[in-house]
Amino acid sequence: MKTDELFREDATLLACDATVIGHGEGGVLLDRTVCYPLGGGQAGDTGWLAEGGQRWRVADTRKSKEHPGAIVHRVDGESLPAVGATVRVEVDAARRQAHRRFHTATHLLCALLPYPVDGCSITETYARLDFHTDEPFDKDAIQAGLQRLVAEAHPVRHRWISEEELDANPGLVRSMSVQPPRGLGRVRVLEVEGVDLQPCGGTHVSNTAEIGAIVVTKIEKKAAKTRRVVLGFADASLP
């Protein structure tokens, strides 16, 4: 039982048709989906499933624990579309776009702050990165750096490399807490042209200019060796 992850190749794809391949873990398992499951610090997508005149709200999307490789769409309501049924899968577009903008912005932060990352959270309303360092951070300098990289309109793209290529370039892995998945023979890497290159399975914009007005809302000392940077949108009413 496996789900074809359409979002890995095209983060702009917001809908698809899919077949129900199972029930369990609080939701519906599909043979393919455009919904990103919680992982890598990024929140899962929400959206809808539709069949005929029925419509179900997808409250969360998670990787299946019972069926490795499958994705569970947790839906509101007691009745579920039947196994074998064809459903329309739709992503909450505004939430997805917020995730794409914030996730790409965290890659810019990694370029500006060359320290290992030991925590990450990407949501619809904020993003944060925890850096392993005791160095003080200059909020204004980070803000100016983000604005510059956004304005420079760097192309953003993903590609796949072999596990052997990753092993030969261990410096590509910035995260201390989340390691790239192994055993598939290949690893997805995200490149912000001329700025950042690292393994990442999340959804991103295609150009840094699409991030728009982003602000550093907070810098915190979380521990002796941890500095946290929190990002928000300049206009929180426009995700």
Automatic annotation (TrEMBL):
What keywords sit in the KW lines? Metal-binding, Zinc
Principal subcellular localisation of the protein: cytoplasm
Give the cofactors, semicolon-separated: Zn(2+)
Q: Which PROSITE patterns match?
A: AA_TRNA_LIGASE_II_ALA (PS50860)
| InterPro entries per the UniProt record, alphabetical | Ala-tRNA-synth_IIc_core, Ala-tRNA-synth_IIc_N, Alanyl-tRNA_Editing_Enzymes, Thr/Ala-tRNA-synth_IIc_edit, Transl_B-barrel_sf, tRNA_SAD
Q: Which domain of life is it from?
A: Bacteria
Q: Which residues form the Alanyl-transfer RNA synthetases family profile domain?
A: 1-239
- SMART domains in the cross-refs: tRNA_SAD (SM00863)
Q: Where is this protein found?
A: Cytoplasm
* PANTHER family per record: ALANYL-TRNA EDITING PROTEIN, ALANYL-TRNA EDITING PROTEIN AARSD1
Q: What is this protein called?
A: Alanine--tRNA ligase
| Native source organism of the sequence | Pelomonas nitida
